[in-house]
């Protein structure tokens, strides 16, 4: 057997172990753990590269820390596989100093989240005024407290019963009233369970009241986070004859929001529109030379779906989302999820391969 064959065999085995590993629910928490603030892709190499094996880390789960280097942390996925991720994409928990020495607290600098995007980005809570949080969901005489500063961005780790759990600079998490601030980024991920999203009206968000266009389903129906049919996409149950604020629309589908956090696509034929809706039509574009549709906004983990001839009409559904654009370097670029106007085929397209027409 050739060395090339053996190398690919080892990568395949590592990937299978990574996917099938099941965390021990009864295991004791690690002495030093890392808690991702969002869904992360870790690699088995300190610097991601073409040969890196990828593992997916789930937000809120505690992963044992194996090593810390250059603002990167290596965590154990299971007994056989470790993955590197950025320290700034989560928080350390437990006694990490004794084993790894002084670890500088990562600076959480909020970035502007992609508009109208279901791709996971950091979820941030920004207090409107001074807020006192507690380490328990419901405050008691024994609860520890922490003060949050107005206007400062805090990473969110959970949503429950109208309350938000946020991380303080030292990694200490506290619960605050969701109406005491605003949320930014992909926060809907924290209210989904088993693929079904639970609307969060307790957070005080009422997008319908300010909407110029609403969609009213004719009867109870289901909305999906994915524009194209995807059995793994998160869904939400919609009530018939109830108005939902429209985010954007195409000739075939309408994207609505159920609570200001979660966006869902619904067939346009499932109900009717009310209000001024023409300004919400999705952006249009044409494909340029070398355009290809990808399954993900990432040339490393995605697959080519189809080549798109130059000057083909496109409907822009989602984006921009930043992701890798080359296999041989760490270069990244903005991607858009588009639909081919003539065939309704959908996929991710690198921004350099399209030209907007409106």
Give an account of the 3D structure.
The strands form 9 sheets. A 5-stranded antiparallel β-sheet has the order 6-5-4-1-7, with no helix packed on it. It is built from 2 helices and 30 strands. It is mainly beta and 358 residues long. 36% of the residues are buried. The longest helix is centred in the N-terminal third of the chain and has 18 residues, at 3-20. 6% of the residues lie in helices and 41% in strands.
SSE arrangement:
Layout: H1 3-20, E1 32-36, E2 40-43, E3 54-57, E4 63-69, E5 72-76, E6 82-86, E7 90-94, H2 97-100, E8 123-127, E9 131-134, E10 145-148, E11 154-160, E12 163-167, E13 173-177, E14 181-185, E15 192-193, E16 196-197, E17 213-217, E18 221-224, E19 235-238, E20 244-249, E21 253-257, E22 263-267, E23 271-275, E24 284-287, E25 292-294, E26 304-307, E27 313-324, E28 332-340, E29 346-350, E30 354-356
Antiparallel strand pairs: 1-4, 1-7, 2-3, 4-5, 5-6, 8-11, 8-14, 9-10, 11-12, 12-13, 15-16, 17-20, 17-23, 18-19, 20-21, 21-22, 24-27, 24-30, 25-26, 27-28, 28-29
